[in-house]
Design brief:
The protein is about 45% helix and about 20% strand. It is an alpha+beta fold. A five-stranded antiparallel sheet has the order 2-1-5-4-3.
């Protein structure tokens, strides 16, 4: 493996593969949470023309302060613990550049001395990711329904029946998949 990687251009442009995967956005950050590399889809999501307009900036340059703060805190958790964050449900930009629910994964990157030197991550829409990540089409359908109807009253019992689950099953699946209840997801979606 070391011999193979030693022959690659430095640095390798792995983000290019993500440009071929619809709905998957790729990024690399340094220890100060500055963007070092991003997929073309992130460049477009941020309303920019070129990657160079993004490199060196933090999430504070693209998101409201409270959202950016959560991202940077997650980064610091990965840097401090060395533990990845896998498929966390959180707010990010959708196709219309509006805040919406997405699945985020962040993995630590190590230098040649085996010290954490940054992180690599992906973001994908909840719609494209829930079933793939968790095998739970019912939760994905329920989340879509809640997002589409959050401005009007949403009856959780009725929603459960719509997706073919009991209220208890829906609550348990939501907890397993996104670590919150349908009611909390509804409340956060209204914000």
């Amino acid at each position: 493996q070391a011999k193979f990687y030693g022959r690659l251009q430095c640095p390798p442009r792995f983000e290019q593969i993500f440009d071929t995967l619809p709905g998957v956005h790729f990024f690399v950050k340094d220890l100060e949470s500055r963007l070092v590399s991003v997929s073309r889809s992130i460049v477009l999501r941020f309303g920019k023309e070129h990657e160079l307009e993004i490199i060196g900036k933090t999430d504070y340059g693209f998101f409201p302060p409270e959202v950016a703060r959560n991202f940077v805190e997650d980064d610091q958790t990965v840097f401090g613990s060395g533990k990845p964050i896998i498929n966390r449900t959180e707010i990010w930009l959708n196709d219309l550049r509006m805040l919406d629910w997405n699945l985020t994964t962040k993995l630590p990157l190590y230098d040649q001395s085996q010290r954490i030197c940054g992180l690599i991550g992906t973001v994908r829409s909840v719609d494209s990711g829930i079933e793939l990540a968790y095998g739970s089409a019912s939760v994905g359908r329920a989340m879509s329904y809640i997002r589409d109807n959050c401005s009007s009253p949403v009856n959780i019992a009725k929603l459960s029946r719509q997706v073919g689950l009991s209220e208890r099953q829906l609550r348990r699946k939501f907890q397993q998949v996104i670590s919150m209840t349908p009611q909390v997801f509804l409340m956060r979606s209204r914000l």
